[in-house]
Amino acid sequence: MKLILAIVNNDDAYSVNTALSEAGFPVTKISSTGGFLMNGNSTFLLGVPDEAVDRVMEVVSAHSRKREQTVPVQHLPHNMGASFHPQTVTVGGATVFVLNVEDCRRL
Ligand code: 2BA
Asked: Which atom of ligand 1 has the smallest separation from the CA of 32?
């Protein structure tokens, strides 16, 4: 069994959640915050059989878009902030971690 952690842009969260549920995967959604941009994002937790991992990746990937976001000026290095030009970074699609699960019980 694997535990999948999928960090998704908030704008894609509804679509990802709906698609995973419709595909029959159990999902827990946690509200999270990216440490760099300090924007809200969504982290999905799914405990699934090993053989389901690829299917989960497909569903998450199909519903997670790349997008450009502006970096807040206070996050720029000091010398860049002084002569401010908006900086952008590419965020997403999704950042996904797959962890081995030793045990899972519903008590
Ligand atoms: P944030 O930490 O807010 O990062 C948003 C985007 O900013 C990142 O997009 C990346 O393009 C850029 N970025 C992050 N740290 C940077 C830095 N030190 N210098 C320059 N640019 C930087 P993504 O890579 O698509 O990440 C989206 C969100 O996924 C992240 O939001 C974070 O919440 C999570 N994430 C990404 N990689 C992670 C990791 N290795 N561990 C934990 N969370 C991660």
From this structure: 33
Residue 48's pLDDT is 98
Which amino acid belongs to residue 79? N
Asked if 62 contacts 19 with a C-beta cutoff of 8 angstroms, the reply is yes
Q: What is the pLDDT of residues 76-104, one digit of tens each?
A: 666 555 566 778 999 989 999 999 999 99
Categorize the per-residue pLDDT at 47 as very low, low, confident or very high, splitting at 50, 70 and 90: very high
Q: Is 97 in the pocket of ligand 1 (CB under 6 A)?
A: no
Q: Which two tokens stand for residue 44?
A: 């999905």
Q: Whose CA is nearest to atom 41 of ligand 1?
A: 95
